[in-house]
# Entry
Amino acid sequence: MNTVWTPSSWKEHPAAQQPDWPDHDRLDSALKTLSAYPPLVFAGEARSLQAQLGQVAAGNAFLLQAGDCAESFEEFSADSIREKLRVILQMAVVMTYSMGVPVVKVGRIAGQFAKPRSSPTERVGDLELPSFRGHIVNDQGPFAEARVPDPNRLVQAYHQSSSTLNLLRAFTKGGFADLSRVHAWNQEFVAGSPEGRRYDQLASEIDRAMRFMRACSVDTESNPNLREVDVYTSHEALILGYEEALTRQDTLTNQWYDCSAHMLWIGDRTHQIDGAHVEFLRGVGNPIGCKIGPTTPVAEVLELCERLNPSRVPGRLTLVSRMGADAVTDKLRPILRAVTDAGHPVVWACDPMHGNTYTAPNGRKTRHFDVILQEIAGFVAAHRAENTWPGGIHVELTGANVTECLGGADALSDTDLDSRYETICDPRLNGRQSLDLAFRLAELVTAATA
Ligand code: PEP
Ligand code: CO
# Structure
């Protein structure tokens, strides 16, 4: 392979998980519209993220990648974006304070619409319907017409990403993320809980440290490092026509960037070494991720590293393991060793969600908080054994008080799932579970790397 890369060279490779668009003229017209739209992010921002991820690869920073499993065209409001950002900021502050390293914040947001599916059809009641593939493709309604892929959705996904990103930029640069507001990020439903009180205590310590700095004549009022944060965007680069349409050549470097998000990742179902997703992402300048599941052989991981980051640029490639709590330590150790021995400076992140999903007796897909934590503990243990840096976490969460994952301090059980089960795809941690996770993760990493 290693033929010349172009934004459309992926078309010469088998592309898994692409929708069966019924009307190719309408598809071409939607892609043409997107190609003429402005980029959502700039190449320079993607380079800054890559530099920060380089620090993660070197063991000097930590990656927090978090957000929806699938963003929804219906659940789209300023409130839900703000609440998601709020919980990400809270988690980041807990982790920064407890672990003593910068936390690089990347949302599964402003573009995380497309879903890979294990089967092209799914059973809904008595019907066998084409699978729901995310709102960028079709609708989850339980009838056949809803499931027909509609190319207009590609354009709608762009517009929703654009307004989401606009609000994120406003919140992160316009005062909402100011460290002097660290107490105000505690949401009402979290504040009275044990993890909410623990957070408040930590926020008070930060306040005290800020007062101390001011007393020492440090200007905390106008220091942008304390008043603003960088929150980057990411999504699974699944629908390659959409990604190609937003791929642009940077005028400064002549390098191609996929300007639909700062960071893109390849899912566990689409990392075939000669497949279209690997071909497409090998050629863009963005930092990229690749999910690694329990059935991926070590040799294949090495090939992916070579193909996706032949120049061994630190921060270019994040390997996101999602092994399942029982398998993680044994499966991960040989991979850590082989990739390190081959001299690949990757970011190692743990997705403790996707290897631990099961269907509860009432038919709801769920995950248990304790098992999620167990996968993180196994991930950290593997790194400790191999003397590598457990560099990040990749989780599905929302700021709202949903009941989608079991356990946590609320001890949610099977019978609670129906009360607020709102995800359109996989179960997410709620605000309290997310904050609790941040404290426990920080304890695990600090203990292992002390
Ligand atoms: C996801 O991140 O939502 C996902 C589908 O993950 P994976 O590719 O690891 O199964
Ligand atoms: Co998911």
Notes: Residues 9-177+228-449 form a domain with the TIM Barrel fold (CATH 3.20.20.70). The mean pLDDT is 96. The two ends are 44 Å apart (CA to CA).
